[in-house]
């Protein structure tokens, strides 16, 4: 039994000042047990552990090839910065490399290092490919997708695709039928096609605004289609580079914190500083914390952590702390179908939490009741 006393407990509907009781790695009602360790938080905020549904790596390591050492290093880096639940995202790779990575990442998901795999590609629009290698993009291939689902052994959780490609809507339906979240992204779809994808079962818009047909007042495209659809969760890369604070504010106002999922889209350079890196075989230069394709202007992921995304939402965007916490934890947890276990500091859920300092930075992190 552990009791966190004098805590500002950040809940989905507001902040409650009091005690948080933890037993056997789970948050429990105050009356469920007694005794044990008492930690006085001196009035500091406690937020639920962050859930990052879109991240490629960190600490110099990438999820791309599924190599266990690198996956562990990247996940540990983000865990230390508050991400207690993470998907591992892969950018478009050659078919065999993709298959090997999915199989290897499935092992690490069984172990609990990651919460599953997100395939960002390979069925993306060439005109909206961002930092993906255009020569590796393919049109939707149901047979290949089914093979990847098999290799993922239940741990392939999400696939980002452009629904306007030939067979795109069939792939959305196939994903929805097999329990893989179809996410609309890297897309040039007009609004009608994006709406058709959501009607076919797609439930996420991948990094809203980035790498998709922009919002136009006479053709709202995937942005309007996603924001207007109450079934859809929209990802936002809140790093101050991909989307400016005014537009993040707009998304929160339009979709609400229960449908905005803060993500990092971080790549290997997160936590490493400026330098030269690789993302899915593409050369990436990081200068002043901005990751760009070498010699170009395409943004190649971010270098932030979820702690940065959360803090920026409060400090730069003006989102109330409980709504920023919701967007960083409960909303992605719900989108991934794991909100009965994680996403909020409520009895019965895993004791995954973050104690913040007075400046809303991470002081320390607990996962399943153990301080990391
Ligand atoms: Zn990404």
TrEMBL record:
Entry keywords, A to Z: Carbohydrate metabolism, Hydrolase, Metal-binding
Pathway in which the depicted protein is active: Amino-sugar metabolism; N-acetylneuraminate degradation; D-fructose 6-phosphate from N-acetylneuraminate: step 4/5
Coiled coil residues, start to end: none
Catalyzed chemical reaction(s): N-acetyl-D-glucosamine 6-phosphate + H2O = D-glucosamine 6-phosphate + acetate
Name of the gene encoding the protein in the UniProt record: nagA
Protein name per Swiss-Prot or TrEMBL: N-acetylglucosamine-6-phosphate deacetylase
Any Pfam family hit: Amidohydro_1
Positions contributing to Zn(2+) binding: 120, 186, 207
Stretches assigned to the Amidohydrolase-related domain: 46-368
Signal peptide: none
Gene Ontology BP, a term: N-acetylglucosamine catabolic process
Recorded GO MF terms: metal ion binding; N-acetylglucosamine-6-phosphate deacetylase activity
Entry-linked InterPro entries: Amidohydro-rel, GlcNAc_6-P_deAcase, Metal-dep_hydrolase_composite, Metal_Hydrolase
Similarity field: Belongs to the metallo-dependent hydrolases superfamily. NagA family.
Gene3D superfamilies to which the protein is assigned, alphabetical: Metal-dependent hydrolases, Urease, subunit C, domain 1
Residues annotated to bind substrate: 131, 210-211, 218, 242, 299-301
């Amino acid at each position: 039994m552990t009791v966190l006393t004098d805590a500002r407990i950040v809940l989905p509907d507001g902040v409650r000042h009091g005690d948080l009781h933890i037993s056997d790695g789970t948050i429990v009602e105050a009356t469920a047990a007694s005794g044990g360790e008492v930690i006085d938080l001196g009035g500091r905020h406690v937020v639920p552990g962050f859930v990052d549904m879109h991240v490629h790596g960190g600490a110099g390591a990438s999820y791309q090839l599924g190599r266990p050492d690198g996956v562990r290093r990247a996940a540990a880096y983000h865990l230390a910065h508050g991400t207690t639940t993470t998907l591992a995202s892969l950018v478009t790779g050659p078919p065999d490399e993709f298959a090997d990575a999915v199989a290897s990442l499935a092992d690490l998901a069984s172990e609990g290092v990651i919460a599953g795999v997100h395939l960002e590609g390979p069925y993306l629009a060439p005109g909206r490919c961002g930092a993906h290698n255009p020569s590796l993009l393919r049109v939707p291939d149901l047979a290949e997708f089914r093979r990847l689902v098999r290799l993922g052994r239940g741990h392939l959780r999400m696939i980002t695709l452009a629904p306007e490609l030939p067979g795109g809507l069939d792939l959305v339906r196939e994903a929805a039928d097999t329990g893989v979240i179809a996410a609309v992204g890297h897309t040039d779809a007009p609004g009608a096609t994006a709406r058709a994808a959501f009607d076919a079962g797609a439930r996420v818009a991948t990094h809203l605004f980035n790498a998709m047909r922009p919002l136009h007042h006479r053709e709202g495209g995937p942005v309007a289609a996603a924001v207007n659809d109450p079934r859809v969760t929209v990802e936002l890369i809140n790093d101050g580079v991909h989307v400016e604070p005014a537009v993040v504010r707009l998304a929160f106002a339009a979709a609400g914190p229960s449908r905005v999922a803060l993500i990092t889209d971080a790549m290997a350079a997160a936590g490493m500083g400026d330098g030269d890196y690789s993302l899915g075989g593409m050369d990436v230069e990081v200068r002043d914390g901005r990751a760009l394709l070498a010699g170009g202007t395409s943004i190649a992921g971010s270098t932030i952590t979820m702690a940065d995304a959360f803090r920026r939402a409060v400090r730069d965007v003006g989102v109330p702390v409980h709504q920023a916490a919701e967007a960083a934890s409960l909303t992605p947890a719900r989108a991934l179908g794991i909100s009965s276990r994680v996403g909020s500091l409520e009895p019965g859920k895993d004791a995954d939490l973050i104690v913040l300092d007075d400046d809303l930075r991470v002081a320390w992190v607990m996962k399943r009741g153990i301080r990391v």
